[in-house]
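Hi V.,

Quick status before I head out on leave. The structure for the redesign project is tokenized and pasted below; the design run finished overnight.
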């Protein structure tokens, strides 16, 4: 995996905190933004990055997080609209080279890609995993 100088993660839920913990452990400089201070409790005691309570939809929060210095921006909230908005801002306003966003609605994937934002869709990934598992079961049953 490529090492980034400065990573900003929006959302410190299960996914955001897992990403922050792993990326910090790998030696990356990480800033996590979340609207709720209690969300940071999900970060491990080894997390060596920065925690920032704030609303990433507000430009002042993104400026304070120094998104302009980021070479990687990950939108990992549980809200597709928030993820699209902040990812688009990171890409267009702050010129962050690597921008990725989690989306739940696979139908929105095209919208994100039009903006040059790579997406990870748990719904699509889970669907693929189920289909592969069913395919495996089918092969076992027909053997």
């Amino acid at each position: 995996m490529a090492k980034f100088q400065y990573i900003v993660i929006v959302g410190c839920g299960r996914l955001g905190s897992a990403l922050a913990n792993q990326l910090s452990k790998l030696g990356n400089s990480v800033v996590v933004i979340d609207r709720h201070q209690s969300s940071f409790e999900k970060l491990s005691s080894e997390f060596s990055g920065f925690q920032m309570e704030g609303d990433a939809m507000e430009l002042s929060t993104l400026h304070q997080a120094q998104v302009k210095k980021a070479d990687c921006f990950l939108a990992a909230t549980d809200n597709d609209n928030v993820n699209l908005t902040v990812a688009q801002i990171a890409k267009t306003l702050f010129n962050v080279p690597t921008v990725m966003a989690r989306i739940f609605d696979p139908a929105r994937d095209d919208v994100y890609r039009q903006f040059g934002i790579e997406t990870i869709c748990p719904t699509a990934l889970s669907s693929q995993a189920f289909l592969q598992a069913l395919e495996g079961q089918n092969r076992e049953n027909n053997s």
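Above is the designed sequence. Residues 6-141 form a domain with the Rossmann fold fold (CATH 3.40.50.720).

G. will cover questions while I'm gone.

Best,
W.
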